[in-house]
Each structure stands twice: as C-alpha cells, then as structure tokens.
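Revision sheet: structure tokens.
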Amino acid sequence: IAKVMPNSPAAQSGLRAGDIIRKINGEAVRNAEDVQGFVENSQVGSQLQMEVRRDRRDIQVTVRPGAFPTQR
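Predicted:
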C-alpha cells in the first residue's frame, strides 16, 4: 500500500502505508490489479478479510468497502 487516505475504509480498518496485502478472502493477491478487482466486485458494506504483511509479521484486517468519495 503506497498511501491510505484519511477517513477512508482502508484507514478505518487500520491499513497503513507500507502494508503488503497477501490474501483477500483467502485468495492470493499478486498485484494491485488483483486488489482493485476484489474491491470493485465487492458490495458496499460487505467485509473483505485481508492477510497483510506488516513489519515482517502477517496480520488479519477486515475492510468494509465504501462508496468512492467524489472529488471537488
């Protein structure tokens, strides 16, 4: 993860810049496109279970995707 936007679903779940997403809902993630596909195909408010590598440890994080904010 390069950047986490403040108040975003990622920030609310505890994801941080530098985290490496390894699995989503038990399925291996190879690249950013895989992550994007999982998020785009999920329902707003559903849960995505992520296995994340942080500081040489694997942790579990639950993310609830939300609607994309509009930019002004």
